Amino acid sequence: MTTTGEPLDISDIPPTPITHLSETEALMADSVSKFANEVILPKVRDMDEAETMDPTVVEQMFEQGLMGIEIPEEFGGAGMNFTAAIVAIEELARVDPSVSVMCDVHNTLVNTAILKYGSEESKRKWLPKLATGTVGSFCLSEPVSGSDAFALATKASKTPNGYKINGSKMWITNSMEAGFFIVFANLDPSKKYKGITAFIVEKDTPGFSIAKKEKKLGIKASSTCVLNFDDVEIPAGNLLGEEGQGYKYAIGLLNEGRIGIAAQMTGLALGAWENAARYCWNDRQQFGTLIGNFQAMQHQLAQAYVEIAAARALVFNAARKKEAGQDFVQDAAMAKLFASQVAGRVAGSAIEWMGGMGFVREGLAEKFWRDSKIGAIYEGTSNIQLTTIGKLLQKEYTR
Ligand SMILES: Cc1cc2nc3c(=O)[nH]c(=O)nc-3n(C[C@H](O)[C@H](O)[C@H](O)COP(=O)(O)OP(=O)(O)OC[C@H]3O[C@@H](n4cnc5c(N)ncnc54)[C@H](O)[C@@H]3O)c2cc1C
């Protein structure tokens, strides 16, 4: 209505809600939810306790087409869009954030790197493998370089047939399962970050080794390792894109990847909320009534749900802007920052809503909370997201 009471003409405004899914995206959400609940859920607690990803889960992720979501069908992938990947990551995290991050890193960082920057030959060589059976890792961080990612010390040098890599990487997701590693190394340190170049390293290459598997607070089933590169020789064809462009590729990939982590965090928040809400509204009685009947509990459940819905709106807005070819860097940073904050708050409150039952390792409440902490750390810490958002706002508002 207008202020004069006339109906407002909104015919030129597309009425699609930001979280509306296309038919194929909705099918993706349904099928991943079914797969996650039927196949992954029964294994979640054991995988967490064993700090290991069940190999059958990895196999079935490939069988379900969840490791090649955006890879075109001609290369054996599902040929779907970015938002379909976001939907899958979110639905997986609702059940297990560890499986979700495997899917996220593989699809949004590794597959995208080849799709965006790989030569035709490398696409033909690698994409069918990445879509059907080879897990990928994205190797940027090092002991000396985390937030300051381009201070990396791993070096590459030219050989008659290609390149040689020396150095080590730290915190590398999927590395126990992976057969394919995108490795950032400096080919010309005199050029500082402009020497950084991206290479492809296969697991069995001599000189490559997994030095240590980290024991972590959360996402324990997701492997995180230190990798060593001792005179690792690779052929010229394993250069990804162009020499000296690695820093640009890493920035571009992480901007997109952040939307994936934001989706992981909204899925986690929803999973934690649903787990506790069902308990409050169905299972636990105190003072002669279900605890979810107390208004104090309902208000907290309602407040948390509103926050999750707000985080999801940011995530889907960033994903749609990326797909529309618009500038989405600030949107991705806002989505990742806020979704990880919401995940931490909701998963923490969910433990309290379940009382002692939220605190024990029988259920999943405590696991969701442990898993939520990583959202504020990887693919750029919360401070780094705030710095990105702040810089872009300053640019916009400076006269
Ligand atoms: C489980 C896990 C999985 C990971 N997976 C991968 C992976 O697959 N591939 C990969 O390459 N990396 C991966 N990482 C690395 C991850 O991206 C880094 O941990 C992250 O970038 C932060 O770096 P850091 O741990 O060295 O922290 P630091 O950079 O040492 O930061 C420590 C603190 O200092 C703050 N800080 C640093 N610089 C600034 C600044 N300029 N302004 C304000 N505050 C600042 C940070 O916000 C943070 O609070 C993973 C990490 C973990 C824990």
Automatic annotation (TrEMBL):
It is an enzyme of class 1 (oxidoreductase). The keyword Phosphoprotein applies. GO terms for cellular component: mitochondrial matrix. One of its GO terms (biological process) is carboxylic acid catabolic process. Its cofactor is FAD. Keywords: Acetylation, FAD, Fatty acid metabolism, Flavoprotein, Lipid metabolism, Mitochondrion, Oxidoreductase, Phosphoprotein, Transit peptide. It catalyses: butanoyl-CoA + oxidized [electron-transfer flavoprotein] + H(+) = (2E)-butenoyl-CoA + reduced [electron-transfer flavoprotein]; (2R)-2-methylbutanoyl-CoA + oxidized [electron-transfer flavoprotein] + H(+) = ethylacryloyl-CoA + reduced [electron-transfer flavoprotein]; 2-methylbutanoyl-CoA + oxidized [electron-transfer flavoprotein] + H(+) = (2E)-2-methylbut-2-enoyl-CoA + reduced [electron-transfer flavoprotein]; (2S)-2-methylbutanoyl-CoA + oxidized [electron-transfer flavoprotein] + H(+) = (2E)-2-methylbut-2-enoyl-CoA + reduced [electron-transfer flavoprotein]. Pfam families: Acyl-CoA_dh_1, Acyl-CoA_dh_M, Acyl-CoA_dh_N. Its EC number is 1.3.8.5. Residues 137-232 form the Acyl-CoA oxidase/dehydrogenase middle domain. Homotetramer. This is Short/branched chain specific acyl-CoA dehydrogenase, mitochondrial. It comes from Aulographum hederae CBS 113979.
